[in-house]
Amino acid sequence: MIMKLSDIKNGNLSAEWAEKGYELPKFDIEAVKARTHAEPTWVHFGAGNIFRAFPAAILNDALNTGKYDRGVIVAESFDYEIIDKAYQPYDNLSLLVCLKSTGEIEKKVIASVTESLKADYSFGADWARLVEIFQNPSLQMISFTITEKGYALRDMDGTLLPVVAQDLAAGPFRPRHTLSIAVALLYQRFLAGGSPIAVVSMDNCAQNGKKLRDSCLTLAEGWQKGGFVPEDFLRWLSCEENVSFPWSMIDKITPHPSQKVADQLTALGVAGMTITKSVTGTVSAPFVNAEVTEYLVLEDHFPNGRPPLEQAGVYFTDRATVEKSEKMKVGTCLNPLHTALAVFGCLLDYQTISAEMRDTDLVTLVKRIADESLPVVEDPGILRPTEFIHQVLHERFPNPAIPDTPQRIATDTSQKLPVRYGGTLRRYQERSLPMAQLRYIPLVFAGWCRYLLGVDDAGKTMPVSPDPLLPQLQPLLAGVTLGKPDTFTHQLRPILQNADIFGVDLYEAGLAKTVEDDFRAMLAGPGAVRDILRRQLSERVRSDQP
After folding, report:
1. Taken in order 337, 247, 404, 292, is the CA torsion positive or negative?
2. Among residues 362, 353, 509, which one has the least CA distance to residue 421?
3. What's the CATH number where 373 sits?
4. Domain co-membership, 299 together with 394
């Protein structure tokens, strides 16, 4: 029998779904839709895979308890094809497939998304609906999964991004940047009486709530100075009893939809499991595949109330604990290791993260990077750093069922480096610890610079993953040639001294020469990247011996 997501309705969830091992919603889908439409509580910006695999899924679990009755409305401000292809043809339902290391899969129908909207004023009906939602006092929170680069308003040299400059010049009436859109809608809420609301980043950013607040206030200040909004709006937005910006730590590896998973679902009788790629490069499908492990830690500061997500395993705590959890995960236990595997995985022509975890050199490298970071990480109490790392290295990264690629992880690396390594470097400085003892973090920086050449360790041209700074970074390396180390002189200086990229000026930190020396060694010829990896790792072994 052919099963279609769009056929799932109340009272007709069909025995076939349950018989084939799908976990079905335990709540009245249409009733939740109706209540959410009348009294919305949560709008999420960013309709991509991580949203459906995690925030939407935990709300689905909360709804299954019977202790809550409102869904989430998703708004997409970047790639509208996601709405057209992955949401609306399926009545906003999706399948979550959790991939176990045993090869088994867990299959769950996610029905917590009640509306999917295009957050763009040119889509008149959708925009009017968003204004209506934001004007409703019932709205408690808006959240974001827009990646690190989504919070940036300026480019590498501090100049406002063109889209942001246009938004500031036009006022809150024709916004294009995601945060301009959000602030414009918050202005509508202010005009409607200014009921309190929480604005929550769920992205992997250090102090993500602060980053989000600073960017929103910058936009509001620009509009106030331009005469578009009154000073009272700025005061309202600045007061955290009106508009809070809770900090968060989120963790769940969610690769692009896998064709293998699509084939499995099709074999189980589900129709329409087609993977599509939009003109902007977004890969989506009516299903999402992800690892089982997940963590979401939220600062409990919601001035208008919040959904009871603790019913689905979310940690609600204070800001200090969130920050410690975030620093532990983003700056030590997972993300720096992920980035190292991404950079060297691309250079060494690996196609999956799990395959890299069978490479002794790369496994040793990420262990050494963790060792360099652990001395300056604080234990958040709710999650233990050493246990977290052990789970990452022995269960999560090696999971062959997770079809994650170093190429995907390498996307936007320039935006990730200050978050994933900068905190460690600054804490070394703050504690007056010797920077000279850092050997493997600089090796990653050198590897990334080598990666920017677009040539792998075999000497073959390789694609470089999208990054907003590529147009500025790659021309700096023009003329640097593999096999000709003498072509490298001082080309890295404007990169390595840029504190926005690394969190610190690497020259002032005393690490630039190490990076330059490693980079030069990687130019010796084909195989030079592998050679320096082995050389540096073996030197540590020798130095560790009595």
Report:
1. positive
2. 509
3. 1.10.1040.10
4. no
Residues 194 and 171 in one domain: yes
Amino acid identity of residue 487, one-letter, is T
Q: 264 Cβ partners below 8 Å, 6+ apart? A: 97, 105
Beta-ladder partners of 297: 249, 315
Can you give the CATH number for the domain in which 254 is found?
3.40.50.720
What is the chain's mean pLDDT, rounded? 94
Band of pLDDT at residue 543, cut at 50, 70 and 90: very low
Distance from C-alpha of 443 to C-alpha of 447, rounded to nearest angstrom = 6
272 and 326 co-located in one domain: no
Identify the band that residue 546 occupies on the pLDDT scale cut at 50, 70 and 90. Answer: very low
479: left (phi over 0), alpha (psi -120 to 50) or beta: left
User: Residue 339's domain spans which residues?
Assistant: 319-544
**Are residues 453 and 523 both part of a single domain?**
yes
The answer on 332 and 297 residing in a single domain is: no
d(CA 531, CA 209): 42
* pLDDT tens-place string over residues 157-212: 889 999 999 999 999 999 999 999 999 999 999 999 999 999 999 998 878 999 99
- pTM here is 0.85
Count how many domains the chain has: 2
Of the candidates 427, 63, 141, 421, the residue with the CA atom closest to the CA atom of residue 299: 141
pLDDT tops 90 at residue 419: no
